[in-house]
Amino acid sequence: MANEYGIPSTVDTTVLSTSLADYQKRLVDNKYNENIVERIVNQAGNKKMIDGGLSIVETLIKEKQDDGGFYLGGDVLNTNQGDYTTLVEFKWQNAYEPIQITRDEERQNSGSEHKILSLVETKTKLANLAIRDRLEQAYSTPVGAANNLADLETIVNTGALGNLNGASSTFWQAYVAASGSFATQGLTDMTTSTYAVSSAANIDNPTLYLTNKIIFQKFEQTRLPLERISDGDLSANAGFKNLTFKGVPVTYGNYIASGLMFGLNMNYLYLAVDTMTDYITTPFITPSNQTVKTAFILWRGQLTTNNRRRHFKLTSIT
Predict the structure, then answer these.
(1) C-alpha distances in angstroms, 261 versus 17, 39, 216, 219, 304?
(2) What's the first-to-final CA gap in the chain, in angstroms?
(3) What integer pLDDT is reported at residue 18 of this predicted model?
């Protein structure tokens, strides 16, 4: 029988299920947190499915066009036009998580009694949680093993990203500023940075502020204290569940580094995913020298931007 991950509950026609002594009727996650970066990109509708290819390429405007002008009567008009665009190339990154079942596990969880959860389903769920958590960390901060995967710290910066270097191509730079005590200057720095990356007062502003849990709590403490007694049940209520700054959501990620806050314009942040490698699960295979069956969850994609200057990063927040 198929489950929510699209994996059959049998392997080689042998029913594999967990024993009553080892598992509850449902597998309860006591370890993993939400994949925030992937969720906010998906909610913005910015997941781009791409059918393979060597790399991911975006076209950029690198400078203002200035070939025209004003004229009167029979003035000669310029007919030359410069080259004002360029390309940025992002390489694909692959990720995987194994699903392995030993012969012993097969036999320990076979039989007609005490079938609670499919062993395949259980192990597939664990692998799914693991690969998504691995990617969440790699989206948020530089991870050595993710050699090609762009993370928010690298995207929202002034150095190299893709095949372009912001140090020499200044149009390819995000706004980065050092902050300090959030209690004394945090809101001021958020305001200054917001204006620095905005096109106009109400155009191309940040659409999301993303930080870590500690700074999020500091931001919450700057809001007007709210303590009230409900007329209905006289229960005390304090604090907020939904926070905004200039009407824009403020939230936190589980792997955003200490001291950092991002102002992201989700109109220019994308998750490119290979159409044939979007958390797919391979068939189970058995090596010639082991009594195990192994499958893999595979992912191929990249976090990209096509307008780096519309994002900002505050550092050294305390």
Answers:
(1) 45, 18, 9, 11, 19
(2) 52
(3) 41
